[in-house]
Amino acid sequence: MLLHEKRLPFVEVVQETWHYDAGFLSINPAGEIPVLVEDDGTILTDATNIAEYLDEVYPEPKLIGRTLKDRIEARRLAAWFDRKFFEEVTINLAGEKLNRRMLSGAAPDSRALKAGRDNLHTHLQYIAWLTDRRSWLAGEHLSIADISAAAHLSLIDYSGDVPWDDHPLTKEWYVRIKSRASFRCLLRDVVPGIHPAAVYADLDF
Q1: In the chain, what are the domains?
Q2: Residues 7, 172, 47, 60: is their CA dihedral positive or negative?
Q3: pLDDT per position as a tens digit, 46-79
Q4: Which of 143-169 are b and which e, b meaning 16 or more Cβ less than 10 Å from the residue's Cβ?
Q5: What is d(CA 136, CA 168) in angstroms, rounded to the nearest whole number?
Q6: Tens of pLDDT along 162-179?
Q7: Which of 24, 73, 88, 194 is the one with CA 20 to 30 A from 140?
Q8: Coil, helix or strand for 35?
Q9: What is the pTM of this model?
Q10: Phi, psi of 191, rounded to the nearest 5 degrees
């Protein structure tokens, strides 16, 4: 989404990190994604690190805030979704319903699903609180905060676990970001053997 928002041409390579790949490990010994490889051979790892690099080298449009205050808030919220939301919601819902099923075929842990759904409401309320006071999550402009939050929510929405009707302000924000051209790369992603929810790719759900 960052690359699309900045209108930078790139080639996407899907890396299945659960399979041993010596070539990939030579690029990133940690064996983790995402990885950005520039034409000059520069290699960057970690989503936050890549976002910082892109905003520094390709500054338009700014996606980590246009003022110091905006940058601090955008970074804070991006970390909130990449850490807190990930641990409380993404792992418990997408991890169980998508990853576990795809990798092992095992049934999801019902306790994890309950915890994920309970935690999800709190995060959806927080998004609503933010968007009721700002144009976007971190301020008046789209930022990495919106991109991080929407990317995580798209995983949850894939299996139909987001109670959108209970959170109209959050739904309104998600419709706006879901309708952006940069979001199409997420909507095109399909988990092998697992069909997305009916409204997953619907831009006006």
Answers
A1: 2-57 (3.40.30.10), 68-187 (1.20.1050.10)
A2: positive
A3: 999 999 999 999 999 999 999 999 999 999 999 9
A4: bbbbbbbbbbbbbbbbbebbebeebee
A5: 15
A6: 999 999 999 999 999 999
A7: 88
A8: strand
A9: 0.90
A10: -80, 125
